[in-house]
Fold each of these.
Amino acid sequence: MPAKIIDGKFYSSQILDEVRGEVAEIVKTGERPPCLAVVLVGEDPASAIYVNSKKKMCADVGITSRAHILPAQVWEETLLLLIDKLNEDGEVDGILVQSPLPGHIDEDGVFKAIAPGKDVDGFHPYNSGLTAMGSDGGLAPCTPAGCVELLRREGIPMAGANCVVIGRSNIVGRPAASLMIKESATVTVCHSKTKDLAAVTRGADILIAAIGKKNFVTPDMVKDGAVIVDVGINRTEGSKKIYGDVDPACMEKASRMTPVPGGVGPMTIAMLMKNCLSAYKMAREKEKEDE
Ligand code: NAD
């Protein structure tokens, strides 16, 4: 790996080792391990691959997983009933509904139906609210939390740094901005309506790109010595290769940069395992308080 690369595979395996160790300790005490329920609706091949890799990762760290596979035509009510059942199930700690859901289902409504304490994706308004408030005790969305964890483990100073986030989606850009504010960075959020984007991004000590457009960020948009976190996963038709939102040529200007693949991607799934363990621990603490 070139020295400038922020190695997401390395840091994600550190996190997975930590989760594996904690789960092994829990099991040693005679308690059951954490359990993640993954719900997949329809037969989208990419979603099926994601669900399989989550199941494999659970097995790898000692977390139990259950897959609930529903047909693409399933009624929304049936899906919501399943979520209710999983919410009530004392043996399930985390619930993940794989997106995208078929068009006839209100995805936001489904995410809102998941009990906040089991919302390991961190998409429920309660968890989004805690993330926006900079509060502990919630479950932050895995991808932006993975970005911040990468920066922390790489030893990048965040307090006082000028951080520019490109993208304002609820799953990446917006929570990434909140998490960086929590780290005391000075944060600017850019989006499709931002005027003179390059002028803004050139002020960034830390640039987080979550746009969804292949090689969108070019070297002229980057300050010398900036740290770049590339969240993008972009595919071109007929090829399995994935591309980030940042032109690899930006490496020449950056002091450090995440690669695609091998940067933020592996961190996302590691943070999911971490959230699952956190959900388990929070539920056990609540049980104790209620006793
Ligand atoms: P999204 O489409 O919901 O949001 C994209 C954002 O980019 C929007 O807020 C939009 O305003 C902004 N944008 C679009 N065009 C722009 C322009 N010309 N100038 C400035 N801003 C512009 O996408 P998302 O869900 O936030 O995902 C972003 C990228 O991150 C995608 O490539 C996605 O595949 C990837 N992603 C990766 C992971 C991971 O695990 N690595 C997880 C989630 C998403």
Note: The first strand starts at residue 35 and ends at 41.
Amino acid sequence: MFWQKDIETIDRKELEKLQLKRLQNTISRASKNIPFYKDIFAKSDIKPKDITSLRDIEKLPFTKTEDLRANYPFGMLAVPKEKVVRLHTSSGTTGKPKAIFFSKKDVNQAAELIARCLIMTGVKKDDVLQNMMTYGLFTGALVMHYGAEKVGVLVIPAGPGNTKKQISLMQDFKTTTLHITPSYALYLSSVMSNEGLNPSDFSLRRAYLGSEPYSEETRKKIESFFNIDVYNSYGLSEMNGPGVAFECTEKNGMHLWEDNFIMEIINPETGKTLPDGEKGELVLTTLCREAMPIIRYRTRDITMIIPEKCRCGRTHRRISRIIGRSDDMFIVKGVNIFPQQIERVLMGIKAVAQNYQIVLESYDRMIVRVEISRELFDGRVEHLVNLKNEIVEKLRAEVLVRPDVELLEPGTLPVTEGKAVRVIDKRTL
Ligand code: DLL
């Protein structure tokens, strides 16, 4: 099923022609209207007219998160303020937020992309989507909301939290589709299971999970608890929010909408472009954004382009699950570790419940605190010792560092409404 079949299955040659035309237009507008880009072109040898092929994009400098911060609040705007109809911000962990502006056309275009994503996963007008992302300055909820309304589904603007109420909404309005973060989906499953509720008595069919990294094991855990299909959804505020890349029913990598974005994978250390199939940092250029075009934005997200064609017939290339962020990686005993490696191991162990935390005590000591499922809390020390040893060994095999593991009762660790905080780095506190 397609929302815009012609563009979703466009011939690659045609797609590239369209990309080039849109890239040239974006560069020309940015270099005329945004002082930051005007400056870049004034200082460098490369001029907008020198971009005559898609490969020429590699000659342009990157835009970094610090550039958006330095130009806060209005510095990256390409249109007069009267044309802006919406502001979102992305706060990140430090410093000033980044301001992201939408014109009317941008709001509509972002909704179009979401509509593609929903129809691609089989949504129909009679579906009911419970939007459990945070409404407000965060893009997650509002951008999805507008896209879902465009498709014509009933949207429940629930926001996150108040889990018992969420469950009643799901029951009363026969919710079929959830839009939710992976950490909140795990928490929801623990509340439902504590309440003795059987997800098969609900009308749920699918969930869109994104906004934070999670592993295939977490997907499986959530799919099997709720008896639904989970689709991975990737996006970032700087590029509209959700709807940048999304899984089709093959559930094997996310189609990145290449008529709206140019994607590159680079080596984060050297900045050199890598071929399809190699892991590196995702760099994105907007092709349709009116209010705030961004050229070669360094997302810091590590992924790769899947070279094979997808069986669904869409020609827009897929990216793999995000492996981690280049700034999420930490080093213990000289070994590079991504939190997601740890999550993958934990979620693959049946006795592990929904929540965990990684505490970096020192440069050679990592503690992994794990909640275990209630059934296993039977008081038999022998069970707990065996489980702890299993977790230590599996983690050591994956990350090559032996962690200390603490087993905890369910509900011990904090739950956040937004993105989960998994790593506590005491070395930098
Ligand atoms: O999280 C937009 C979004 C909302 C995407 C809802 C999907 C669903 P930001 O708050 O700007 O925007 O955070 C963007 O979140 O650079 C990734 O590091 C991470 N991220 C987003 N989706 C995924 C995903 C929204 N599916 C940052 N897997 C991005 C892994 C993800 N990481």
Note: The domain at 1-327 is CATH 3.40.50.12780 (Rossmann fold).
Amino acid sequence: MEQQVQKKRIFSGIQPTGNLTLGNYIGALRNFNLLQDEYDCLYSIVDMHAMTVRQNPAELRKACLRTMSIFLASGLDPRKNIIYFQSQVPQHAELAWILNCFTYMGELQRMTQFKDKAAKHADNINAGLFTYPVLMAADILLYQTDLVPIGEDQRQHLELCRDIANRFNGVYGDVFKVPEPYIAKVGARIMSLNAPESKMSKSSPEGCVFLLDRPEDILRKFKRAITDSDTERCVRYDPEHKPGVANLMQIYGSAAGKTYAEIEREFDGQGYGAFKAAVGEAVVEKLRPIREETERLLADKAYLESVYRAGAEKASYIAGKTLRKVYKKVGLLAK
Ligand code: TRP
């Protein structure tokens, strides 16, 4: 008889900026289909984390819905994955309070993201900003998560999450699974179009393609993309000496479904101009259905609501089990 193997669980928290980039798409979103069959995946749009810096309420709400719509439009299947808003699953805040009591001031003071954000928002260094990593630990630990896909910038937070879990388990027995970072098998790091030595980032919008950008803006950004200053002027994959060209080849390869050898042949004897135009057009065509589907979803409020309500219900069911166990262990009376 075939044995049912328990899938490993992945938890990912996504900031509701509503402004996802081509880097996010190639690096993460397009892999949903691969992940959803192999793992049990939860995607939480972390609207409570977003509040650690001041938000305009109407814009925050819009950004939350836009982020969810982009996820769905990129191919995330809400029947196979749990997608929900963090604030709609009260167990996150409840567990975060308890974990606050198992986290030391000194640990939080060492967090580099806290130091950076405190410097950037010097007029609003609130307690939520300080305990941000504790809420993140609660997000992860509530679901007995095996794996957390994270970039370099979140590594320290995940390490703290593991420390908190181990500390708690040390006192009360095995309550939490201690999560590991998830490193994608097909790692793609998309670089800025106008500064190929740094990662594509919202903070430099001319080098960054947003998934909802208009086609004319996308074409312009690619037309102005930095290639390389070498004299060869030919399309060849050589990330060390030609990082700009290599980045464009990676983007073109994933947008048009071509290998590097095919791309080199296609542009053999042509200059960078024709190549950049082709990359721009391939990206426009790749993103067109995502943009259109996002807009369609945003207009269908009833459907979106049905997705996030069902997501919150499923998440809350799993989270509730962990939280009840925690209440019992620490001596609170379960509801
Ligand atoms: N802090 C993460 C970020 O800024 C977002 C996040 C919140 C997260 N909770 C999480 C990521 C849990 C992974 C797991 O990107």
Note: The mean pLDDT is 94.
Amino acid sequence: MERTLVLLKPDAVQRRLSGSILTRFEQKGLKIVGMKLVQASPELAAKHYDVHKERPFFGSLVSFLSGGPTVALALEGREAVATVRGMIGATDGTKASPGTIRGDHGLSVQNNLIHGSDSVDNAHLELALWFCPNELVSWTPVDQSWIG
Ligand code: DAT
Ligand code: MG
């Protein structure tokens, strides 16, 4: 079982899409093991996007991610990292396939609603950045054996 970090970024919260996006993950069979509303500081946003610190859009990206509340989710399931990335779709909403979260809800590159970790290693790092260990809950859903 893998765990991955998902952020419903401030545009998703402002547009009241948090619930419908979360429903997609629940319906897929992914298990919520962490969930909270966070007002990210610019420092947290900058750490989260540290890999992009040399890019010209970095300052704007940090302002965006710290510009309102974000829903932070830790999701668990088989192949959770790649599964979530597939459900999210391409970075640019205009290129993201219909049926994906970005493909169904956005036209922007920066304001693209959602983040998902891109590798198991980055998932570990990002989960540690956004959650304290005691905020992650290990539990077994009653239908687990039917989900796989
Ligand atoms: P992803 O979120 O699909 O993993 P990424 O890691 O390449 O995409 O970039 C991180 C975020 O930075 C992305 O969600 C939106 C923003 N971004 C990426 N490329 C951009 C660009 N050319 N202009 C503005 N923002 C960009
Ligand atoms: Mg990325």
Note: Residues 118 surround magnesium ion (ligand 2) (CB under 6 Å).
